[in-house]
Amino acid sequence: MKTVYxxxxxxxxxxxxxxxxxxxxxxxxxxxxQTLVDQLNVDxxxxxxxxxxxxxxxxxxxxxxxxxxFQIASVTAETxxxxxxxxxREESLKSQIQKSKAAILYPPRGLHTIIFGETGTGKTMFAxxxxxxxxxxxxxxxxxxxxxxxCADYAQNPQLLYGHIFGVKRGAFTGAEENxxxxxxxxxxxxxxxDEIHRLPPEGQEMLFTFIDKGTFxxxxxxxxxxxxxxxxxxxxxxxSTFLSTFNRRIPMQIxxxxxxxxxxxxRLAIIKEFLQQEANRLMQEIAxxxxxxxxxxxxxxxxNIGQLKRDLKLVCAKAFLHHQTSNDSEKLMIIEDDLPxxxxxxxxxxxxxxxxxxxxxDKRNLYLTLKPGTEEVVWGQDPNKDMEVYxxxxxxxxxxxxxxxxEIDLEELISDDVDQYFENYxxxxxxxxxxxxIISDELWKLVNELYDFAANRMKRDYDEKVRFAFALHxxxxxxxxxxxxxxxxxxxxxxxxxxxxxxxxxIEFSNRIEEAYNIMIPLDEIGFITMxxxxxxxxxxxIDERQVAVLVVMHGKSTASSMLxxxxxxxxxxxxxxxxxxxxxxxxxxxxxxxxxxxxxxxxFSEGIILMTDMGSPNNFGxxxxxxxxxxxxxxSMASTMLVLESLRLATLGRSLEEIYTSVMTMFQTMxxxxxxxxxxxxxxxxxxCFTGEGVSKRLNEVVSQIVNLDEYEVIQMQSLEREGFKHxxxxxxxxxxxxxxxxxxxxxxxxxxxxxxxDLFKRDKILEFQDLIGSTITLPEMVDSxxxxxxxxxxxxxxxxxxxxxxxxxxxxxxxxxENTAIQALSIHIAFLVDKxxxxxxxxxxxxxxxxxxxxxxxxxxxxxxLSLIENQFSVRFTEDDIxxxxxxxxxxxxxxxxxxx
Length: 904
Description:
- The protein is an alpha/beta fold.
- 49% of the residues lie in helices and 12% in strands.
- The protein has 36 helices and 25 strands.
- It has a 5-stranded parallel beta sheet. A 4-stranded parallel beta sheet has the order 19-18-20-21, sandwiched between helices.
- The protein starts with a strand and ends in a 10-residue tail after the last helix.
- Residues 548-673 form the PTS EIIA type-4 domain.
- Residues 439-544, 792-902 form the PRD domain.
- Keywords: ATP-binding, DNA-binding, Kinase, Nucleotide-binding, Transferase.
């Protein structure tokens, strides 16, 4: 609520809320609501309302107790982040700061800059520091703009992107009723920061390059050139070595920010202290973090770098605030080990590895690190944590639930889940949206959300993003299966229809919408699977018997089992399950002894039986041993994958029996590896496109491969590599009657010495050329020489000629990143070979129409081709005419494979 002034007879009268604030300012001591009631003679309800509003606005501090007291909040000095107070300025960021200052000061208007760094390393903040340095160095005026724009927002809509950056002229398109200024004009005289610059589509790159090269641009629909003085700072998560060469050439200054793991412990401690200090200042409350919690934050692996560190610190501060609000145990907010996220707690496992390095950080006299409010605060630019939203949310819910006479224990239990959920997507940098958008189209994601919103309304149940994402993956796979005539049967369809009749009816409606959107027919079995997704609900508290089947994962490797189980636990939101890692240095007997002792000590937890998940070898025998030695029923599922562990643990937490789980999971496994037999075409070589989930990028990879190779010579087969053993079994079947020349996959797979090509290589021109050279052609070069030798002049060394032509064409393709289908390359090789023969025989060759014009139009490439052909001329004592070379250039240009790269 803003301060309200009432004008009466020319006299300004302050509002009651203003008077409350004035009294608290005049008397900085703690005061109760009743004291203010007595002073102002106002209804207590209104005083309480004013005090709560002032507290939410951060102007007043609320002190819990009996009675609750209020005090004016002290105002602390704020300093915007800049290079002078940036953590790491004399250590890990020293060279980066020097380079950025040089970029700002470079005459006449600075150098355009690219900032490289992983997600969460502080690229946006570093760009803001560059801007503030430019202002302090008088390179930019104090009023100079700093405009930020995320290129990913419009990556799929080039026209909208163009209009947003460069502006729109009235009438440019339907609905453009007025001239609209673009970001380039808004940033004139300042800096334009383009985040995720690698997401610019080709059209966006071209228009940006035109501005960089000439300093001019055109608004959409406007033929008139405009000028602007703007320094471009881009940011990308790509590495400098793999970044687009077009950007590297045009943007000279490149700065790489280190990951959090690469920075010193001193710097990490400083970041932790600074953030906790900010929270203490915002809450006007002392915050203490115990020694083990601080150690955990110093040592854990934050995959999202500083962004994740801040997110996790914010989470524990919120939990500490919640504890403080629901108990009177301490005057300060206490951060304790039990409140740390699991990933942070794991940092303590690294203590033995870095004991010596940790000594300087730990004062043995103190058990806590304490931060008191009032210390000068450094404000991080564009810091989404700057507001008090989460703390106000907690306070509001406590007050609301308190009015319903719930106990303090109930309050904390009910709210803590909300706090965890609030932070799941708190920091945008850590959002996995971009990751799964690579394999789920916007169209499908929109449809899935519409379907689940409909189901949520019908069922009066919430379905969170994890459930929706899992369903989207499933539907993506279902559409591919149906279109490929691959059908699967549901093992318990009748039970599903009987036990979940409401969900089954909604699943039928789902299937109608999907059929309409994708022009397919969904069989009844698939509707059964859709029903199962509708029964999944991460938020619904199901009353399940505490005695459950235990899921025990045993796998070879130092962390294979624990990593897999942890992933599954996080997906399901449970702590159930047991993992045993089996390093190769540990013998089978030793491993079994460890498992046996563990099961005996916690025998009650295994009373309903054990699902033993193994990868291979001797652990497969542990099930029989456990049953015979301890009498505990055990079912073994070998060749376990994340998907199978996920399903096993999900069913176990739902209280399913041992046999139900085993039967269901084994059916799932058989379904996963049951793929349609390919058409037998033994004369064709085979290229396998293997995708981890069998969805998403597989179609795009297939399209790219199909353009690179001759489909008369090669067969491209899509396969699922989620279950490795099933995938290898399928390869074993194919290799008996097919010549498999390569496996292209999203995850590395090496089997039977078949060459493996990473999927992303097919989106890089230099790698595509290597791929073409690898697979070669149906007709080999020696075969070509043997079949054509009799057609050439006897004194001509045909073998040497073809070898040299092959080398020349490889040089031309690689130097110019030309992607040409292999049959076209063979045809060109034969053409050049016979051209040499004709020159030798002094036979007449055809003239090329308008050769001078064609030469001038393609002068750079024409000269490159002529230069490479000179190798053949010198070797065989021939000279090619301008017409001869023009025909070769035209064949190279006309036979290029053209498709969009970097679009997966």
